[in-house]
Design brief:
The structure holds two protein chains of two kinds.
Chain A lengths: L10 H5 L15 E7 L5 E7 L1 H5 L3 E6 L32 E2 L5 E7 L2 H10 L1 E6 L11 E9 L2 H6 L3 E9 L11 E7 L2 E5 L5 H12 L6 E4 L15 H13 L3 E4 L2 H7 L6 E9 L5 E11 L10 H9 L9 E8 L14 H19 L3 H8 L8 E7 L2 E5 L4 H14 L11 E11 L7 E8 L5 E5 L8 H13 L6 E4 L17 H28 L6 E4 L2 E4 L2 E7 H7 L4 E8 L7 E11 L5 E11 L6 H21 L29 E6 L22 H13 L12 H5 L3
Parallel strand pairs in A: 1-12, 10-11, 14-15, 20-21, 27-28
Antiparallel strand pairs in A: 1-5, 2-4, 2-6, 3-5, 7-15, 8-13, 9-10, 9-12, 13-14, 16-17, 18-26, 19-20, 19-25, 22-23, 23-24, 26-27
Helix pairs in contact in A: 5-6, 9-10, 9-16, 12-13, 15-16
Chain B lengths: L1 E7 L2 E7 L5 H8 L18 E4 L2 E4 L12 E3 L13 H8 L9 H12 L9 H8 L10 H22 L1
Parallel strand pairs in B: 1-5
Antiparallel strand pairs in B: 1-2, 3-4, 3-5
Helix pairs in contact in B: 2-5, 4-5
The chains are: A alpha+beta, B alpha+beta.
Chain lengths: 734, 165
């Protein structure tokens, strides 16, 4: 079962329109909420007059910060040791100062969502505008971080050659196709919630502490989620407001975000400026690398704190042997939407900076771009490679792999597929770009899974992850099927339910297959062992003569002698069950190579991606079709960030990207057929399945590969200055 | 409020709707056809695509009252009589054309309408890609969707050829 591209368990319901997304759930007697948001980027609130609006027919109540109980601001979930961010956290409703256009000011609650929206427009809001900080370079610093080892300054001074470039990454984000939604239903002193995902147990516990109720009185129910990508499922102001209103009003309250809100309210990401320097000896060997990062974090530190900045500078050295390194990040606060993680946080940005630097350096050194990389890659003999850096509370130990072999394989594959840049014509230039990267996955510290065989012989997994579209139900079923000799289609996987799995750590950081899958594997093996114990007694056979086939325990070589798992479960007092928690100290590090062929129209500045290849080592693919799907989807998002997507602001801090006309996600017309070379040659030693994560390897190096291909097409000696490479930025370059 | 009658997936409904209520909200919240999804409510993403008298429309840009007397087809109407997946739905699963599944109903209805047109009998990959470019998907990178639509078109053309011979 592991290794088979089985059809997904999720597909039948989704294809029939029978998914259960947040807004699909209704409760009898529910009220609707509409968030009133700041119309300005920065200002002092003088009045919020709710009287007129509250008089409208069908309006139940309107609440502002004054009406809230005494609660703390929303805390950081992903803490990085060091800086104290308390002063920069976001309140659930702004009380005196607003710090970005879109910040929640009030909530209108009423009987009908259309009426609530009307009333929200009638709210009288007076704000004395203050100057808006929009350029991170000039904005106040919330925190700074350094990750370093060795003596890079001396190495740079003594280097035969130093290359320095500055590259900016634009402000863009995950933008799942389903906007956020929440339904909170009070019942008998408890609260039932639909719409939370990603980290439902964490969110439940935080909500319980903010509401000052018992954790177990809050029940988070599973929903399908219309894409996650890092931004969905974090604890936002609405995650307090809607449950609190339901509890206070003792009525179900439902909130469904519209797209204009989503684009200013949910986490933005990425916006960084890198000044990155590499020192080389006379043979083209790296002797040092430094990076100074300025991150535009928007108006507040949200649940990710400064984890994106930390990941950026911790992962920047990538696949190379770098004797001395220093990454420094300065996290600045601007009057824009706060930022969080977006798929491959910090790596999309850092890989762009480092791999673009490698191309510029190679050209300056007169060394072939691939050869310069090959010369500096860590080798198989270096594994495991410990870097004197920590990230997300773990030591950074590159665990397995053969980086030069994958680079060579990718170059061969690109050649085989005819990736050499075709000759351009008078007005169209073509370019080839390549980038290499190390990804991270399988963040611990733990994940829990329960595997149960019911008295009907059905297998039920209660997993700690959540469904986000990644196919977690299929993957976990395949892992359990492997251990239990039961077809995956006979296995039910429950995710995102805090009652059924109260110890779940959630689906993020490419961790669910690695950590959650390992927990399922161990729980399934424990259940298998228990089934064998029972069967050995029932069949009067030795355990080692037994095997599990299709839901039956049979005597090897004598399949007529058997007992079904259902019978075993019935004799074992109704069910066979095991709970296992898989704990892990270190992450596992998959890696890959991206290659792109682009054309650039010199008149219009338009860039077209003609070919795209991802070569990726995943340790072991539980379902190769799903891994390839993750990689292709990631590439498409990465092309969006490289060429199209950007949250623009005008000079007053007014957001300019509040619809899909202005926030331009790629369509099928902008995404080419994507070639994938999936390798499974270096299983991770850190988990029993040998798996590495697949969620982020598709997006990690897209900015880098596209930037390198465009630079190649234009034949520029210097770097491209910034992503996204819109037609205007290409036309306006000298 | 306006009384209307509308037939959805062959089933007649009578209801009263506000003039400003969108067809999408009416289908989802008044009639319970929650397979039609709203991704942007301004006509770009196409997740809410349904067939109005056989023609694909953005249900977020059509008012419920405009469907008075019309036949509407939603994703819930695609599966066969015994609830078996249609060839198009099955192709979406076979080609891994969906991940989160939120945009899927829109792509299915869009493709369903196009596949009914004579031009679909000779559909090329470029045409399948142009069609797919009408809607947004944030998960798949579109390749599976293009492949699924193309495979369905080819299979239907083959079946038609077989029926003729």
């Amino acid at each position: 079962m592991i290794g088979a591209s089985l059809p997904r368990k999720e597909d039948p319901r989704l294809l029939r329109g029978r998914g259960c997304f947040g807004d699909d759930v209704d409760a009898d007697g529910q009220l609707y909420a509409r968030i009133v948001r700041s119309p300005v980027a920065h200002g002092r609130i003088t009045t919020i007059d709710t009287k007129n609006a509250a008089r409208a027919s069908g309006i139940t109540t309107i609440v502002t910060a004054e009406d809230l109980p005494a609660i703390d601001r929303i805390p950081v979930r992903l803490r990085v040791e060091g800086p104290d961010l308390t002063g920069y956290l976001q309140p659930v409703l702004a009380a005196d100062i607003v710090r970005y256009a879109g910040e929640p000011l009030a909530v209108v609650v009423g009987e009908d969502p259309y009426v609530c929206e009307d009333a929200a427009d009638e709210l009288d809001v007076d704000i004395d505008e203050l100057p808006a900080a929009l350029d991170a370079a000039e904005a106040p610093q919330a925190a700074e971080l350094t990750r370093a080892y060795g003596d890079p300054d001396t190495a740079i001074r003594q280097a035969a050659h130093v290359t320095e470039i500055t590259v900016s990454i634009g402000r863009h984000s995950g933008v799942p196709l389903e906007p956020r939604c929440l339904l909170a239903i009070p019942a008998g002193g408890d609260l039932h919630i639909y719409g939370m995902t990603k980290v439902p147990v964490y969110n439940r516990d935080l909500l319980a502490s903010m509401l000052n109720v018992d954790q177990h009185s809050i029940h988070v129910h599973p929903v399908d989620a219309g894409g996650g990508f890092g931004i969905r499922g974090e604890f936002y102001p609405e995650d307090f407001l809607i449950p609190w209103l339901a509890m206070t009003l003792n009525r179900p309250v439902k909130w469904t975000e519209d797209r204009a809100e989503n684009l200013v309210a949910a986490n933005h990401s990425r916006q960084q400026r890198h000044t990155v320097r590499a020192a080389f000896d006379e043979h083209g060997h790296l002797t040092a690398l430094t990076d100074d990062v300025i991150q535009d974090n928007g108006a507040y530190c949200r649940t990710h704190g400064i984890a994106v900045a930390e990941l950026t500078i911790a992962m920047l050295p990538g696949p190379y042997r770098i004797p001395a390194y220093r990454g420094h990040a300065s996290i600045r606060l601007t009057n824009k939407t706060p930022c969080g993680t977006y798929r491959a946080p910090g790596r999309y940005e850092g890989t762009t900076a480092r791999e673009h630097l490698m191309d510029v350096a190679a050209d300056q050194l007169g060394i072939d771009r691939v050869e310069l990389r090959r010369r500096n890659l860590l080798t198989k003999a270096d594994m495991p490679h410990r870097r004197a850096i920590s990230t997300l509370g773990t030591d950074l130990v590159l665990d397995a792999g053969d980086y030069p072999a994958l680079l060579d394989a990718a170059v061969r594959e690109a050649g085989r597929l005819g990736y050499r840049a075709p000759a351009g014509d008078a007005k169209t230039r073509h370019g080839f770009g390549l980038a290499m990267f190390v990804e991270k996955s399988g963040l611990g510290p733990r994940e829990t899974a329960d595997v149960t065989i019911t008295d009907a012989g059905h297998v039920v997994i209660s997993a700690g992850g959540t469904t986000l579209g990644q196919g977690i139900e299929t993957v976990l079923a395949q892992i359990a099927a492997d251990a239990l000799g039961t077809p995956a289609e006979n296995i039910t996987v429950i995710t995102g339910d805090t009652d059924k799995q109260p110890f779940g750590t959630g689906s993020w950081a490419s961790r669910s297959t690695v950590v959650g899958g390992s927990a399922v594997h161990e729980a399934a093996l424990a259940v298998r062992q228990e089934a064998l114990n029972h069967a050995a007694k029932a069949l009067e056979a030795a355990e080692h003569d037994l095997e599990l086939v299709d839901g039956e325990v049979v005597v090897r070589g004598d399949p007529a002698v058997s007992v079904s798992l259902a019978e075993i479960a019935r004799t074992a007092q109704g069910s066979l069950s095991a709970r296992r928690t898989f704990e892990v100290d270190h992450m596992t590090y998959p890696y890959g190579v991206h290659a792109a062929v682009v054309s650039v129209d010199e008149d219009t500045g338009a860039v077209t991606v003609l070919r795209y290849l991802v070569a990726y080592e995943v340790g072991r693919a539980v379902n190769p079709m799903l891994v390839e799907g993750q990689l292709r989807g990631g590439v498409a998002q990465g092309i969006g960030g490289a060429l199209l997507e950007e949250f623009g602001y005008d000079a007053d801090g007014q957001p300019q990207s509040v619809s899909f006309l202005d926030y331009r996600m790629p369509t099928a017309a902008e995404i080419p057929r994507i070639d994938v070379l999936l390798t499974q040659e270096h299983p991770s030693p850190g988990n029993p399945l040998g798996v590495m994560g697949a969620g982020e390897g598709g997006i990690n190096a897209v900015g880098a590969a596209i930037a390198n291909a465009v630079r190649d097409a234009l034949g520029r000696p210097g770097p491209i200055a910034s992503l996204p490479l819109t037609p205007a930025t290409i036309r306006n370059r000298p | 409020m306006h009384p209307i009658t509308v037939t959805v997936n062959g089933k007649p409904h009578e209801l009263t709707v506000e003039a400003r209520r969108t067809l999408a909200d009416m289908l989802r919240h008044d009639l319970g056809y929650t397979g039609t999804h709203l991704g942007c409510e301004h006509g770009i993403c196409g997740a809410c695509t349904v067939l109005l008298d056989g023609v694909p429309v953005r249900a977020c840009l059509v008012f419920g009252v405009q469907a008075d007397g019309a036949q509407v087809r939603t994703v819930e109407g695609l599966a066969g009589e015994n609830d078996e997946l249609s060839d198009l739905q099955q192709a979406f699963s076979d080609h891994h054309a969906l991940q989160c599944g939120f945009c899927t109903p829109g792509f299915l209805m869009l493709a369903e309408a196009y596949l009914a047109e004579p031009a679909a009998r000779t559909m090329t990959e470029t045409e399948a890609r142009e069609l797919t470019a009408s809607n947004l998907c944030r998960c798949t990178g579109y390749q599976g969707i293009v492949d699924a639509i193309l495979a369905t078109a080819e299979e239907r053309a083959r079946n038609r050829g077989r029926e003729r011979t």
